[in-house]
Structures are given as C-alpha cells and as structure tokens.
Amino acid sequence: MSSQSSRGGGTGIPAAVLALLGGIFHLIGVAGGAVMLAGDDDLGRALLTFLLHVLVAGVLITGGVGLILAKPFGRTWTIGGAVLALLLYVSVLVLGSFGVFFLGLADKTIPVGYTALLCLPAVATLVLASVRPTARWVTSGWS
Length: 143
Hints:
Keywords: Membrane, Transmembrane, Transmembrane helix. The protein is mainly alpha-helical. It contains five helices and no strands.
C-alpha cells in the first residue's frame, strides 16, 4: 500500500454514477411531465412537474459528467443537484400533507415510503460528493 493518500476516485466516481442515475430518473419525470402537459386539466401542476424535473435532471447530469471528468464544477453541480432533489422530495411530502399535489400526484395518496426511498440515493450522492476525497478527486483528476 502506498503512502500517498487516495485521490478520491473511490468517492468521486460513485458520486458521479449516482448523479447520472438520478438525472436519468428525473428525465423519466420530464417525459411524464410532458405527457401531463398534453393531457392534464391542471396546466399549472403539469408545467411545474415538467420544469422541476428538467431542472433537477439538468443539474445532476451536468454534475455527474463533470465529476467523471474530474472537474471542480462537477462536484459543485452534483452537490447542488442532490440538494435540489432532496428539497423537491421533501416539498412533495410537506405540500401533499396540505392538499397541494404536484409531480404527478393527483389525489390524497402521498407515497411517503416511496418518497423517503427516493431520498436515499440523493443523500448518498450528496455525502459522496461532499467528502474531502471527492474534493481531491476534482483537483488531482485522473492522472
């Protein structure tokens, strides 16, 4: 084992993979939002669903690609995307408890377990992107 400390690929690469998977998940939400725009009577809810998924997907994918390339912006965008995703999931729960439904929720059935499950990869992404080895990864890169 070398005396040189890890460059952070062990946290940076998994953070990138999780960010990209989260981005793909939200791209599916973009497609769902587009379908809602085409057929939902509540245009505001459909537009909100579409735009929020576009925002989160764009930030997570940009961050994930940046982390794979070992660029500092990748870490920042990944952290931001994970925070946005967590805020979105918590908003679904909080607003749903007050009868305000979005992101495809149309009735009083708030999938608390499902939404909590969505938080797990977002938290893991946030933690992996935030730790010091990932910071070293984006400053030292692949070399």
